[in-house]
Amino acid sequence: MKRIILLSLFFVFAFATIATAQTKVSGIVLDKSNQPIPFANVVFKGSNTGIVSNEDGRFYLESPNTYTALIVTSAGFSDKEVPLEKAVNYNFKIVLGEAEALNEVVIYTGKTSKKNNPALDILRKIWARKRKNGLYQFNQYQMQKYEKVEFDMNTIDSAFMKNKLFKGMEFIFNHVDTSDVTGKTYLPIFINESVYDVYGDNKLKKVKENITGNKMSGFNGNQQILSFVKDLYSDYNIYDNHLKFFDKSFTSPLSRTGIDVYNYVLKDSAFVDKKWCYNIVFYPRRKNELTFKGDFWVNDTTFAIKKINMGVTKSANINWVKDIYIEQEFEVENDSVFLLTRDYMMSDFALNKKEKSKGVYGKRTTLYRNHKFNIQKPEKFYKEEVNFIDNAVYDRPPEFWEENRFEKLNKDEQGIYKMLDTLQTVKRFKQLYNLVSILGSGYVEFKNFDYGPIFSTFGYNEVEGIRLRVGGRTYFGPNDPWRIQAYTAYGFDDNKFKYGVSGKWMVDKKNRVIISGGNRRDIEQIGASLTTTNDVLGRSFASSALFTTGSNGKLTNINLSNISVEMEAKKNFIVQAGLSYRTLESASKTFSLDYYTTLPSASNPMGVVKSDVKQSEANIQFEYMPNRKTIGYGVERDLVDSPFSHFFVNFSYGLKGVFDSDFAYEKIQVFYKQPIIIGPLGRSNIILETGKTFGTIPLGLMSVIPGNQTYFTIENTFSNLNFYEFVTDQYTTLQWNHDFGGRLFARVPFMRKLNWREFVGVRAVHGTISDANRAINASGLPYNAPEKVYYEYHAGIGNIFKVFRIDFSWRGNYLDMPDAHKFAVKGSFGFYF
Predict the structure, then answer these.
(1) Is the dihedral of CA 728, 811, 804, 552 positive or negative?
(2) Which of 479, 473, 482 has the alpha carbon at shortest distance from 450?
(3) Using CA atoms, how far apart are residues 526 and 588, in angstroms rounded to an integer?
(4) Would you put residue 55 in left (φ > 0), alpha (ψ -120 to 50) or beta?
(5) What is the pLDDT of residues 442-492, one digit of tens each?
(6) Three-state secondary structure call for residue 120
(7) At what angle do helices 427-441 and 223-232 cross, to 10 degrees?
(8) This prediction's pTM
């Protein structure tokens, strides 16, 4: 969601002086019968800059250099040289004639054979040598890395420039590059530069990148945009079987499974930088799969890639992205070592894939130089810093960039910095930027204070009726060392005010030692999740759902206070200890938390019943999230949206007698989530939760198996269970959810164009209750535990209209329980690539 909202920022704010490229060409490649030729190679003459036409024969090619001709080639057709009479050329129609007989190589067209195909023989040799090429040949390596990310708005016409949206900002269009042929304009709107020192150890399997400089046009310090850019452009290795872009797993043309996914054609052989190389063209066997089309040059002795160009197929099941183009170049070191020196990636983001749709080009250029090898570093050198803090990195003087840029910025790229710095002073721009920022963060920004989150303003439940909430937080910048948050809410049926306030203070920035505390008095649906924390301002969606599948008055008045201290002992390993005090009592006349303090006996048949719970608790918890990536170094950080494992353990101790606390107990909870990418088959998530309470406790402190009585999908809940349908003091749940990413529907012809995506999953739980806990239950709620494993399974369809997902869930057993939901339909909204 964050990525799409921030991407919309680039769609709306097209601000710059002139398009970056000096030579631009677009057009279509046809045969003599005017039929499109897909996957034709289009290259600037005398260069290595080229692209492969899409399924419709269309292409777009640009370069910062000046060229006067194109070379167009395709298997089965004669090569053609096309002169370029000017720098910007649109709507070229390039017609190729049939080729004469070729002697050097064998040519295949259409579906290529998996037998007796020389291209596949070469591909198998690439597989055999891929772990012996490049940096893998050395025990250790060092190099410098320069990365430049740009965004250019494309397909802008005069009507767009006259839009009222730009009132007061018309000056940005004074130097627009406009084609006389099509009226299309190209506007650079953003640039970010970074310089790194990179170290690697193949024996230790460790890599470390030290950032030495970062510069961002117009938005310095905006962590959301930095996070967005890192989300879009994750690192990849072209030799890997699968390449991850935009949270999708694409099959690499060099994959060991590529034979089943791609057609390969051995097209040519020639010297490239004094190395004899083979040229192989590849294109997908089927539509709608996450694949590429393109070509690569591979050396005839080392079978290392010299150069590769590839673009995503137009039919690929991916949203908001019209095109992806990748180009990598390798240089020869010591006569036999091929090292990556240039990596270029261009993405065309658009609301739809129509040829004339407006969009944004996102371009990343990564350059490498000054390689050094076999200089060993101690293992502790590769230990990641818990909280890297160096403000100077983001404030380097111009002299630093003049010295450390691997290639100079052209005049237009330099203009991006000047233009956006100017726009920061324009009131209209600030208003538009703030609007998009509100959608992205959920907060309305004021000086040193944010109001929100706005999405929690309105709610409803049976006890409070309509609920209105207002709140906010302190905000001096993204790297604040302390933050205070507070809210108040009012229910129109119970006529009561509620509130919550919390604060965090990072007392040690290097090790991220954070002290936090707060108090909340509110109405809550406890038991909405199994693995719980003492987050003062936390509130489940189940407490305020506007629409539910059935009546629910099982709500609780909660008064929670806590104080805690946490420390990131090592990168992504957090230890926290805390104390809390809470009181719990029913918020509804139809629901009870009653328990016996004295059990019924012959002398006292009624026993002694108490209706509220007072509980002091101490806890210590451990959280480990390997491969988690974060942005910023303040008390609150943003996450880079990439999958990572999550392991959580919590030990709690009930402190009876402390502040009149009622119960003594020990509780352990374990949570483990593991994402698994299964190449072209999509991604699975496996979630395990288990816990046990030792001691006697009432309903308010039991582990309630989380049901879901809303119409929306809620993670880690059971769609076919009601609230409090199962209650336990010992439990184990296991979930498996899998996203096929459209792989199955792509094989069904009449469903292929819908680009729907398939989801399946199973949830199961086993739990028990001790006799002592059953004995003190005076709530009137029957204790049912899933002593025989309860399970449910679901299947869903996602990417409906690109924003909607619907899940169908079936109850596997316990079908005879009162008010049992045998079948449920849940939905959810979201923006996904």
Answers:
(1) negative
(2) 473
(3) 13
(4) alpha
(5) 888 888 999 988 888 888 888 999 999 999 999 988 789 999 999 999 999
(6) helix
(7) 60
(8) 0.78
